[in-house]
Model the fold of this input.
Amino acid sequence: MNNIFVYCEVTEERSIADVSLELLSKGRKLADDLKVKLEAVVLGHKVTKPEAMLFPFGVDVIHYADDEKLFPYTTLPHTSIIIEIFKKELPEIVLFGATSIGRDLAPRVASALRCGLTADCTSLEIGDHFENKTQTEYKNLLFQIRPAFGGNIIATIINPETRPQMATVREGVMKKEVYSLKYKGKLIKIDARSILKDEDFAVTIIERHLEKSRIDIKNAQVIIAGGYGVGSKENFQLLFDLAEILGAQVGASRAAVDAGFADHERQVGQTGVTVRPKLYIACGISGAVQHRAGMDQSAQIISINTDLNAPINQIADYTILGNVADVIPKMIKYYKKNSK
Amino acid sequence: MRFRIIVLAKQVPDTRNVGKDAMKADGTVNRAALSAIFNPEDLHALEQALSIKDKIRYAEVILLTMGPTRAAEIIREALYRGADQGFLITDRKFAGSDTLATSYALSLAVKKLAPYHLVISGRQAIDGDTAQVGPQTAEKLGIPQITYAEEILSLDAKKIIVKRRLERGVEVVNSTLPALITVHSSAPPCRQRIGKLLMKYKHARTVTELQNETKDYTELYTERPYLLIEEWSAEDLKAAGENLGLSGSPTKVKKIENVVFQHKESKVLSNSDKDIEKLMQTLISSHIIG
Done:
């Protein structure tokens, strides 16, 4: 069987993105299961010590293209180089981060290679599949598990016939784990100029205005999150009031973001940020699985909801039956009264 | 030559408003209980196309969608808001398409509408959230893609300048045309229906829809051919069978599970002052807050 590849994203600081290290950690486990090698693809310019950075994650081979044309990322040059590598190496499995870059790049690559791609997987496993229709057994497939249909179902997706089997995974879903500090692989240099053509530069970057996400809910200890049930942007202000006195951050469900109650940077869940705070207060959030995927690791969960049967209540430590607009002012009042 | 903009849109079940009857007893999704809507980000895409038409008089906006007969609803919706024309790609052979097979069918339809300048779609659809069909269609067409567009800053016959919304900031890029753009939800929302257009297009129908009408509209459609929404089958698109539907889809669904909720001892409190004060005291004394 052929090897597992991880596309490693290069950060602004010319290091390797956390999400890629998380995927290497997962990739190493899958490689051990399948008894194959783990290979990393790094496309950038003057990347800080790729070997020292990646070998400890159990990487056997680094494919490194170092060229000023490859940083910052643009779609077509990265696609062309990856396709060139994959046509030669014929990977079994390829993992990408489900980031702005990975979600731009992976589908383009999948289309060119005519292979399957599953977005935003929450779990990846190796398993066998028996196809009843053709009476064919497939050994050691990648089971790509993800919520779908607004989070009402969990689907297991497979690619029985085509290779590579490709998947994207969001940051924070897999755990970053050093495999062995002594691990050593080899580095293969790729000559980007011999691969790239003029038409790969149809898109050029005029300006980049990079700003650290103003809102950092990922590292917050306490998160007050609001859903569609908060009802209005005005009511959302109550969440900010509570957040301020608790030193918390305000998060939101997708429905609340779509309704314009909160900025998309605040979105918690499968298509937003994954959080693990000490306390998560879910206000008017029904709790679709896509939302819960982003917060169910919270140490304590309080749900404020008018509906006792809201799915979120089943993972909550406390459910307060009531209206957000009634409950939050009381929480503020009694916090102030008792915290002194 | 007209400046041709093709908008790719999808009719989706409204997964954001899932009620209790959305799941059937056997654990499958009860599609009938979900209303079908114009995919939200595709409406943002339509707005981008229409706002180009506001500025460039020789621009035309064509809506392209793939789906069952019912999907003609979103073509009418686009016509009411200012699109010039719409086409419905519909054929049982397309059933079961994953993103790769979908992008194959869409790319053939786009090629049929050549020469075109711009293809615009939403970033992703709310039923699948994959964001794959845009880039895959661009690859099949052999044109550049600009994903997560928030604003089109300038445009002429040969190039476009677009502001993209990324995770940690914005990027302004210049691309040659034709190109495919996927629009982010942070772009302006779509304008509302226009009364005059609603009157003009309210009888717009596909051939299949007309067959189900009891009244004979033959005369009306001869007089106003723009009311007929063209349907394209796999054959019309000269689509190769092995690239269509299930057989053209490398991804297969092995298993679908109902969401299993993890049960945990949950204390239910009222919203009385007493209950909330006690909860806050517990949280403070256990150093979770405070």
Observations:
- The mean pLDDT of chain A is 93.
